[in-house]
Design a protein that fits this description.
The structure is a single chain. This protein has 165 residues and is an alpha+beta fold. It has two domains: 57 residues, no CATH class; 77 residues, Glutaredoxin. Helix content is 49%, strand content 12%. A five-stranded mixed beta sheet has the order 2-3-1-4-5, covered by helices on one side. Helix 1 crosses helix 2 and helix 1 crosses helix 3. The protein is elongated. Bound molecules: FE2/S2 (inorganic) cluster (FES).
């Protein structure tokens, strides 16, 4: 993200240090991750030590320091989902995508993550694809759950970019 685009975000979110997390969320939404160069620019723009910016960027799991796929697939491995078969659901997602949690497919279409409870235990096992909850998942439902995303040309990154136009 160049300085001009960053300045626009700062004007929107505010220059106050308390706006840093909101700014990181905006950058993540626009870029799909938090590029080092953009964090350096943000540090300069807010007159905030780079170590502080990095501290916030690495503290929250929702931020990524590496490029992520167009689609984010999140499998809940919390206790309620675990006892209902989440490990086998995760295993099938791994098999379908060919990557493990924390990894992104080579074509940059999918990033797989695992979490511990998303607050929808009664619906477990849960798989979240681009923010959409898929409950009562089983290994047999994984392919269908992912299939709708395969041919999608637009991911969250594109949608966010359009909002800014
Ligand atoms: S354990 Fe999966 S939603 Fe709570």
């Amino acid at each position: 993200m160049d300085m001009q685009a960053l300045n626009t975000l700062v004007e929107k979110c505010g220059e106050d240090h308390t706006a840093t997390i909101a700014l990181l969320q905006e950058i993540q939404a626009a870029e799909g991750y938090l590029p080092r160069k953009t964090l350096q620019r943000l540090s300069q723009r807010l007159k905030l030590p780079l170590s502080r910016v990095y501290g916030l960027a690495t503290f929250y799991r929702s931020f990524s320091m590496t490029p992520t796929g167009r689609h984010r697939v999140c499998v809940c491995l919390g206790t309620a989902c675990h006892v209902r078969g989440a490990p086998s659901v995760l295993g099938e997602v791994e098999r379908q995508l060919g990557v493990g949690p924390g990894e992104t497919t080579k074509d940059m279409q999918f990033t797989l993550e695992s979490v511990n409870c998303v607050g929808a235990c009664a619906m477990g096992p849960i798989v979240i694809v681009d923010g959409k909850y898929h409950g009562q998942m089983s290994p047999g439902k994984v392919k269908k759950c992912l299939k709708g995303q395969e041919k999608t040309q637009k991911g969250p990154k594109d949608e966010k970019a359009q909002v800014g136009r």
